[in-house]
Design goal:
One of its GO terms (biological process) is DNA repair. Its EC number is 5.6.2.4. By secondary structure, the protein is of the alpha/beta class. It folds into 5 domains: 192 residues, Rossmann fold; 206 residues, Rossmann fold; 72 residues, Winged helix-like DNA-binding domain superfamily/Winged helix DNA-binding domain (Arc Repressor Mutant, subunit A); 140 residues, Sec63 N-terminal domain-like fold, CATH 1.10.3380; 73 residues, 5' to 3' exonuclease, C-terminal subdomain (DNA polymerase, domain 1, Orthogonal Bundle), CATH 1.10.150.20. It contains 34 helices and 19 strands. Helix 24 crosses helix 26 and helix 25 crosses helix 26. The protein starts with a helix and ends in a 14-residue tail after the last helix.
Amino acid sequence: MSAKVAERLMQILGYKELYPPQRAAIEAGVEDGRSLLVSSPTASGKTFIAMVALASAALKGAKSFYTAPLRSIATEKYREFREALTKLNLKVGISIGDLNVNDEIIVNRNDVIITTYEKLDSIIRNSPSIIDKMGSLVVDEIHYVDDEKRGPIIETLLSKVLYRSRGVQVVALSATVSNVDEIANWIGAKLVKCNWRPVPLSEGVYKDGVIHFSDGSKRKVEEVSANPSINLVVDESRQGGQTLVFVQSRRRAVQLAKMAARLPRNLLKFNQGKAREYAAKILATEGPRLLREEIAELIMSGVSYHHAGLSNEQRTLIEDAFRDGALAAIFATPTLAAGVNLPARRVVIAEVERYDESYGVPRDIKVFEYKQFAGRAGRPGLDPYGEAIIVASRPRSVRELMEEYIKAKPERLESRLYGVRGVRHSALGAVASGIANDFGSLLELHRKTLYYVQRGEEKLSQILRISLDDLVAWGLVEETNGKLKATHLGYVVSRTYLDPASVPKLVKLAKRFNGKFTTEGLIYIISSMPDMNLLPVRSSESEKIMDMAVDRVPTLIDIVDWDDPDSVAALKTTLALLDWIEEVPDDKIAETYDVGPGDVASIIDTAKWIASSLAEVAPAAGLPEEVSEKLRLLSKRIEEGVKPELLQLVEIPGVGRVRARRLYNAGFKTLESLATASPQELLRIPGIGPATVASILEFFGRKEEAASIKGRGHEGVGLDRFAA
DNA sequence: GTCGTCTGGCTTTAGACAGCATGTC
DNA sequence: CTAAAGCCAGACGAC
């Protein structure tokens, strides 16, 4: 039966024939549990190969796992897999960090489980025996091993699977890189390498009004604007196609989008009706009003920008708008290249230099990154071809860029496990979950990393020794007679998934606070943890931050190390979070701290995770129980963005911080007082409409009343200015 | 003296995973 | 280490 899996999937998906890499993968034995490394361009059908592997193993009664670097990718694949695999009577589940689910239930109830890397790592930590039931593991975007931050997770995650079970089928999917054979060797996989693309790609360099394609052909572009990228957008739009323009800074993305929007109306082709719809949807999102209006206006002109300063909702809307033909172009930072599938006929790489923080100078992007951008060119089934065009900046010659990028081979993938941070994390997880119980087994386990394959035993052993010594010194692991065992604290830290280095940092700061933990003090501790992501501090800004601190958090003045930029950034982040839980409107926060709504959302998300994790860690680290309670409360407040008195009210679906405050101020201070409120009374409160009232009534089980309210029609969303 | 413009120096610069609880988009 | 654009202060010039 297993040999038929691919055929059955073809039928389900309506495929008539397979793409070359798919055929190659079948021939190589995906259906029979062979481990594979599939290296082929974007959109060459790797998802189908993943499906075949997952389904084949699951149909034999084993658990199949699919793991990816981003929640958005995981969600996209979840929908796709569920759609197809349910028809084979397989159950598909997803477990990622922002969904409220129990991993064990998800794993037990489903045949195919979709996760992010970290989530799968965490699942394995909590129950390593899952590996024994694992039939197939698909690791998507495995080239992420080369990522400074996330790479070590993939390596050590995979090392645990490879170490514990020789039978698991690992199907690794990768973009094209030069050392694929080495990667295949690492995971013990057969290499399926293929450069075939579903849509032919032509690559070129644009300079002084002419596109020089790599095949020698040229195309003259009318210079309607002073900006080369915009000329390329207009040129493509005239031919009826869409363009993605990749830039290397947010500001640049915004600026170019605005420039394009000022173009004479007839130069860009896009669906104006749809554009209006999406502009209205953007206006209805959360976040600063000015920013929403700015994007809405841009969309009305058929363009938008796209970067991580936007909220996820806004980003998704912009992507949808592009897919729907409402936009002629998107000007994006590299987020868009890494995320969900969003192809365009033309891709413009507006600049190949990017400022590099670690060196303090601009550097050229990698060939690999260029190929990732270029991979977005050409929509399968829609475009006869795709184009990737690099814009030559003034000092660059066409030939230089052609040699350095278009004709160049992508770089090797290098292990990033050289730092102690990743190894510490992995070692603690291995010891706490019982996968390793002495230095020997720990070393054995880490021999299954790419780092070992590339750097050898000596270096690995050194890093491991240092990491272990740290863990012992911090009281997370005990080493007696060569046997390793996690302490209670070690178990807790491992389970929370915090960086083990959080512990010494927490202990040190706790001492500084001398037993007095105020709300701002705790937020500062949260912001100082190694896992926190901090708001950027401009050099001209530190004085302003100091003034605000004197005013608002005088207790922190002596705690902050003013010479340490990270400490100042933690303070800035603390102030923003404090505003958030004091119910300052989010657009006000974004403005005060000069960041986008996406940045605010990001610190909130991280802070609430760290807060609740620290609540677990604190007692184990010897801090009073009351600190834990405060942290738990704080985590809730950060999640909802409210003062303590609103925590009850925000439990109601449809009631967030704003509506809760309105209800509270109208006298409904508790759930009890709301439970018996009359609908008419509630409707009189400004900002509380029929939909909200219905939701409140439903929450209290007053179904009939809720239904009668719902019947009264909908409110407009206040988007009249865009209504034709 | 006041206003407007030019210029040179200084500043800034991408992204985003993880816990817990509960029968799940 | 190989950039480029915004911003601001100060210089300069016209009146």
